[in-house]
Design brief:
Strand content: 15-25%
Bound molecules: ligand AHZ
Structural class: alpha/beta
Helix content: 25-40%
Largest sheet: 8 strands, mixed
Order of helices and strands: HEEHHEHEEHEEHEEEHEHEHEEHEH
Shape: globular
Radius of gyration: 25 Å
Distance between the termini: 87 Å
């Protein structure tokens, strides 16, 4: 058996190639695929693996690569400049909300995530452990996504939190009505007044996160905007960039002073977050840990069920608001025709 080779990064390329030679020899040894115990010859992908040096990629112009990305990104910016729902924060609650909205393909959904990697705090269970604990009945959400778990009675345990997050992300990102703008921060809200003088949220003010992080080092880096009929704020609890939605509402005097999340009590925290998931001011729905920030409700620590159910509830509240708006527009049109 070839020895396992572990080389320091600083090792020169020829030295690395020489040292890795026995492993490569092992990799290029001919292999045969079998079906019903009979050899069926190598598949195309096995052929590629066997002799990667011999692959001839089809030609491309560098500008084609550039245009393939930029044309789509700018088309998306144009398409989502005025959208139905903007979800700020792609943590477990925001992603569950987006997942629920994939069931309504007529609803346009933009997700704004300040990090390059969407997923928020759900890539790990707690304290950087792998497993994720989900209390019943939120395991039904995992069932819907066909995610396997160990049933421990009142709760279930998924082997890897990353399995839940990656599955959820895949379902959300493949949906034609959803666009993720990652590495993009919501820097502010659009707040307007209706005919009766009531304030409502009409969208978000965005910037590339790298720009948002550098406002103190450069002058004049104005943001962009995204209008939305409903904003779902799922930015998590307070931290360097968390709870941004409710902190802005507090500054604007649109909600009472935010007490911040209370100390941990798993048994009360999860039920309370779900029951308090709501439209906090017209046009803005809160879900996930951001709910406990505004209510001073307990945190739950590393149990994730409430995040998923809260996200699903936020989606339903958003849909109710959209459907009510659509009904009002229809009524207005009918009245105009009748007049
Ligand atoms: O990067 C943030 C994260 O991915 C993102 N975010 C925050 N502010 C933003 C902004 N613009 C764009 N201004 C922003 N993105 O929001 C996401 C929040 O994810 P999260 O996992 O922190 O929040 P969550 O409420 O979905 O899940 C919370 C998970 C926790 S915290 C906790 C405890 O501390 O007790 N317990 C659980 C289960």
């Amino acid at each position: 058996m070839a020895p396992l080779v572990s080389l320091p990064i600083s090792t020169s390329v020829p030295a690395r190639q020489a040292a890795l030679a026995p492993r490569q020899a092992m990799r290029v040894a001919p292999r045969m695929a079998f079906r019903d115990n009979k050899p069926i010859g190598e598949t195309r992908s096995e052929e590629l693996l066997r002799a990667p040096k011999d692959v001839a990629f089809l030609p491309i112009k560098e500008s084609q690569v550039s245009r393939a990305m930029t044309s789509r990104y700018f088309r998306d910016l144009d398409e989502f400049a005025d959208t139905d729902v903007v979800i700020v924060g792609a943590g477990p609650s925001g992603l569950a909300c987006a997942y629920e909205l994939t069931k309504r393909p007529d609803v346009k959904v933009a997700i704004i995530e300040q990090s390059v990697a969407p997923g928020g705090g759900a890539w790990l269970g707690g304290q950087l452990f792998s497993a994720m604990v989900v209390r019943k009945p939120a395991h039904e959400f995992l069932d819907e996504l066909s995610i396997p778990y160990e049933d421990e009675g009142n709760y279930v345990v998924v082997k890897h939190a990353a399995l839940v997050t990656s599955t959820l992300l895949a379902k959300v990102l493949e949906a034609p009505n959803v666009k993720l703008f990652n590495a993009t921060a919501a820097e502010d809200l659009i707040v307007k007044e209706d005919d009766t003088g009531n304030k409502y949220v009409g969208g978000v003010v965005t910037n590339w996160t790298l720009v948002a992080l550098n406002h103190n080092t450069q002058s004049c880096m104005d943001p962009n905007v995204m209008e939305a009929k409903v904003v779902v704020s799922s930015t998590g609890h307070d931290g360097p960039m968390g709870a941004t939605g409710v902190k802005r509402l507090e500054k604007l005097g649109l909600v009472p002073a935010c007490p911040g999340m209370y100390a941990l009590d798993m048994n009360t925290a999860e039920d309370r977050i779900v029951s308090n998931t709501r439209e906090i001011i017209p046009g803005m729905v809160l879900c996930g840990m951001e709910v406990s920030e505004v209510d001073g409700a307990p945190r739950m620590g590393p149990t994730f069920g409430a995040m998923y159910v809260s996200g699903q509830k936020a989606a339903r509240i958003a849909l109710e608001a959209l459907d009510a708006d659509a009904a009002k527009v229809k009524q207005g049109q009918k009245a105009m025709v009748a007049a």
